Each structure stands twice: as C-alpha cells, then as structure tokens.
Amino acid sequence: MRQTVKKSLVLISVLMLVLLAACSGNSSQSGKEGNEDGTINAKIGVISYLTGPGAAYGEAITNGFKLAQKEINKEGKVKIDLVIEDSVGKQEQALSAAQKLMSDDEIVALLGPTLSTEMNVVGPEADLNGIPIMGTSTTAVGIPQIGEYVFRNSIPESLAIPAAMKKAVEKYDVKKVALLYGNDDVLTKSGYDTMKEEVEKMGLEVVTTQTFQKGQSDYNAQLTKIKSLKPDLILASALYNEGAVIMDQARKLGITIPFVGGNGFNSPEVINIAGKAADGLIVATPWFAGKEDPKVQGFIKAYEAEYGKKPDQFAAQAYDALYIYAEALGNAGEADRDAFRDALAEIKGFEGILGSFSFDKDGDVEMEPTVITIKDGKFQLFE
C-alpha cells in the first residue's frame, strides 16, 4: 500500500513538472539531474563502522566503496557522490547517522550500516521513509525481511554456516561438537541459532554450549570446559576481535581441533591478531582471493595499489555493492528513490568479483558460497 501511494505521488509530481515545463517553453530532463550528456548523478549515503574495536570492518567496507566509486565515475555513465558517516558500531549512533543522511532530499539510497545489530534499528527507519538501503556485511537472519526497501548483498549466516559445517563434518568425521557464541550481539546470536539448527539436522551431539560478551578478554573458563569434554569440532560465532583471542587462548590450552566460524570471524584480522593460532579456522564466503578470475585479480591489484594492503571479504562485498547500485541507477534511468528501489529489486545474474549474484523476492542473496580455511597463516580453499 505504501509503495502504491508513493508511486502515485511521484506520478503526480512528474505530471506537474511536465506541465510547468510546457508552460515555460523549457525542455525537461527528468532523472538526468540536468546533465546534457545523459549522465545520472546520484548521492549515496554510507553508514560505516569507522572507529572502535571493529573499525577494521568499516575501513575495508569504505575502501571498497571508494575504489568502486572511482572506477564507476571514471566510466561516466553514472556519477556517484558518497556521503560517509561513522556509526562507531553502536545502534544509537548508526540511527543518528542514518537520520542525518535521510534528511537530505538529494540522498537517493543508503549503504550500510556495518553490523546486523545496527541494521535492526536503521532498516525500519529507512523503510518507513521510503529510502532504499543495502547492507554489505549484515548477515543475521531476517535483515531483508525488515521491509521492501531493505536489501543486502552479503551471504547470510543461514547459507554460509551450513556450507562450512557440512564440509568440516565430512572431512573430520565429526560426531561431537561444542558451541561457543557471543550472546550480546545480533550477528553472533543469529550465527549460533543457525549452528544449533544445523547441528540438530546433522544429528550431532552437543557436549556443551558456552557464551561470552563483546570485549571479553579471558575465555579460560569456557575453553577449559570445552577441552574437558573432548569434542571433535568447535562451532564459534564471534566477531574477529573476540574470535582471534579465543583461538589464541584455545591453542595455548592445547586445544588443537578445528573451529568453524560465522561471518564475523571471516577477516584477515584474525590472522593478524592470533597468528599461527588462527590455523584451523573454517568459514564459508563468497570471496576468495585465490580465484583465477581476471575480475578478482584485477580488483586485488587495484585495491593494493590504492590502499597498500590486500582486500578482504568485506571490501569485496562493498565494491560489488556499489557496482550493483550503479547498475540499478542505469536501469532506472534516473536518481529517484522509488524508481531506484524497483530497479534494484530486479537485479539478476549480476557478474561481480564475488560471482553471479541475484536478489530473491525478499531482497536477499542468491549465490553459492566458497568454503575456505586458514592454513600456514593464510586463507586457502578447504578441500
């Protein structure tokens, strides 16, 4: 109903503009923002986690956006202006940043925020205001179902975790598992829910379930309990800071079994923090830097040249996201929120650096993840 009313208002506005143009004798350039060459100018708001303990996520994501913006603008069909706000990884700050961006009538759409916890408050607000929003790292269950203006291009935990678990269980003939998760974050709790559901489907025995909080530094009690029960595999839903420390402390306690992690665990920062202790982590992701695809290698080369470091999954997802936005803008033919939203929903078979991507009816992801592991200090295919 809301969409129909909005479209009616847009149609009335367009008709009024046409009449005014006819009366004045001037030609109309609706949707082209006044550019005689037909270039579509679009202002996109970005909400990113740039300061705080999880800033590596936001830095990679923002770098991915900026690199894509540079390339897209150089191509010239669409010109994108990014307006970036810091969420500090907190719900209230993310909402404040979103409201600031949404108050600008020239903002066509939003990208971000970084965390699912943040999207749970920002998504409903964007949907209520009829502003398209896409998460590039929000993988908790239910994000696109927030509303018709809410999308994501990041593979949800419900696809990634089962893929990683299946391969790990088969390779290591797993019968018993221990569950470990952060119980004060939407993403990590959602990851745990998926792990628990998949464990039940596979008929695995759960020897213990342990919890922790963001910012915790001592996991000795949880890990000692896990070690005493001798599981074959640890299923851990954690952000990279806590996840890396957990793995480091686990190895120091003599726990050598593999870990299967959720999406928050999937960052080179795990290796930077945990070092050799990160070996044995298994995750599923759409991004694998070892692919021989020219698009993938071209992106890596351009990213390293721009930022002096290799891109991770979060940079790659952000990079593809802005290209998806550019394609939707081109298909819409104008920088209009509703026209853009409808064009975005119709994206099918987009060939990006992550592979072939489509939106389903809810604005969620349709694509296949790749299962990778950390071995010898780097991510490799898990075979």
How many distinct folded domains?
2
Determine and state the CATH class of the largest domain: Alpha Beta
Specify the overall morphology. globular
The description of the largest β-sheet is: 7 strands, mixed
CATH architecture of the largest domain: 3-Layer(aba) Sandwich
Order of helices and strands: HEHEHEHEEHEHEHEHEHEHHHEEEEE
Assembly state (oligomeric)? single chain
What would you give as the CATH superfamily of the largest domain? Response regulator
Q: Helical amount among residues, as a percent range?
A: 40-55%
Describe the structure.
α2 (55-75) runs parallel beside α11 (313-332), α5 packs across α6 (186-202) and α11 crosses α12 (337-345). The chain contains twelve helices and 15 strands. The protein folds into two domains: 2-10 and 38-155 and 294-366, Rossmann fold; 158-285, Response regulator (Rossmann fold). The relative contact order is 0.14. The protein is an alpha/beta fold. The chain is globular, with a radius of gyration of 22 Å. It has a seven-stranded mixed sheet with strand order 7-6-8-9-10-14-15, with helices on both faces. The termini are far apart. 46% of the residues lie in helices and 20% in strands. Keywords: Amino-acid transport, Signal, Transport. This is Branched-chain amino acid ABC transporter substrate-binding protein. It comes from Peribacillus asahii. One of its GO terms (biological process) is amino acid transport. Pfam families: Peripla_BP_6 (PF13458).
Layout of SSEs?
Blueprint: H1 2-24, E1 40-48, H2 55-75, E2 78-86, H3 91-102, E3 107-111, H4 116-128, E4 133-135, E5 150-152, H5 157-172, E6 176-182, H6 186-202, E7 205-212, H7 220-229, E8 233-237, H8 240-252, E9 259-261, H9 268-274, E10 281-285, H10 294-307, H11 313-332, H12 337-345, E11 350-352, E12 355-359, E13 365-366, E14 370-375, E15 378-381
Parallel strand pairs: 1-2, 1-3, 3-4, 4-5, 6-7, 6-8, 8-9, 9-10
Antiparallel strand pairs: 10-14, 11-12, 12-13, 14-15
Helix pairs in contact: 2-11, 3-4, 5-6, 8-9, 11-12
